[in-house]
Amino acid sequence: MSPLPYEELAWADTPIGEISLRTRFDRLTGRQVHEVRLGEEYLMSSQFNATELALARLGMAEAPGRPLRVVVAGLGLGFTAHEALTDPRTTGLVVVELVGAVIDWHRRELVPDTRGLAVDPRCELVEADFFDLVRTGRCPAADVLLVDVDHSPDHLLAPGNGDFYGVAGLGAAAATLSVDGVLALWSDDPPDQHLVARLREVFEHARPEVVSFDNPITGATSACTVYVARSPRRA
Fold first, then answer.
1. Highest-confidence range of 5-9, 144-148, 210-214, by mean pLDDT?
2. What is the C-alpha to C-alpha distance for residues 154 and 24, in angstroms, rounded to an integer?
3. Given pLDDT bands bounded at 50, 70 and 90, which one contains residue 4?
C-alpha cells in the first residue's frame, strides 16, 4: 500500500465537528504545508497565508500610534495573531479560540511557521466562543479587534454566529473597543455593500479592502475581502 500523501499531526472531536491538523509536502511549490480540516472541508492552509497576514496588517495600520491591546477572534494556524505581535505597539494580545485542541497545537508547537506564539509573554490564548463573549458583554476590551472565524458573513461555521453581522452584533463588538478603536473582519467573499452599510451605522469610518494573491494551485489570482472599520459611534 502506498503511503498517505499527508501526515495527520493532531485530531479532535469538537462541537463543530471533527477537526484535524495535517502536514504534507507540496511538489508544486516545493514546501512543507500545514492544513486544517473540518471533516474533509479545508479551513485553512499555510500555503495561503496572505489573507491572514493582510487582516492583521490592515487592522493594525488603521490603529492609533500608541501602545495597543489587540484581540484576535479565531486562532487557526496563528498567522494573524503572530503578525499582530510583530507590531511594536502591541503590548497585549488575547486570542479567543472555540476549539481547545487548536490552542493545544500551538502550545505543543506543531505549526512551525508561527512557533513561539503561545509562549510570547504578551499573548494569552483563551478557549471560548467569541460570538458568545461579544453577545454577553464579556469580550476583552481592545484597541484593535481582528475577526477571522466564519468563511464569510453569509457562509458560517455555525448557524448561531449570524447575529454578529447585524447592526446589534457589530454594535456589541464596537462597545468593546476604545474610542478610536478598529475592527477588521475577514471574508472569503467579494465586498458586500450591505455589510459596509451596517458597519457605517456602528462606526464613523468603514470600508472593504480586496486582498489579491497568487494561487499556485490554480495558476491564477485569488482574492478575499477585509472590512476595516474605525472609531465606534457612541450613543
1. 144-148
2. 31
3. low
Q: Which amino acid is at 129?
A: D
57 alpha carbon, distance to own chain's centre: 12
What's the CA gap between 234 and 216, in Å, rounded?
Answer: 45
Right CATH for 48-232 from 3.55.40.20, 3.40.50.150, 3.90.226.10, 3.40.50.10490: 3.40.50.150
Is the Cβ–Cβ distance between 102 and 19 less than 8 Å? Answer: yes
Whether the model pTM is above 0.85: yes
172-204 CB burial, b ≥16 within 10 A, e <16: bbbbbbbeebbbbbbbeeeebeebeebbeebbe
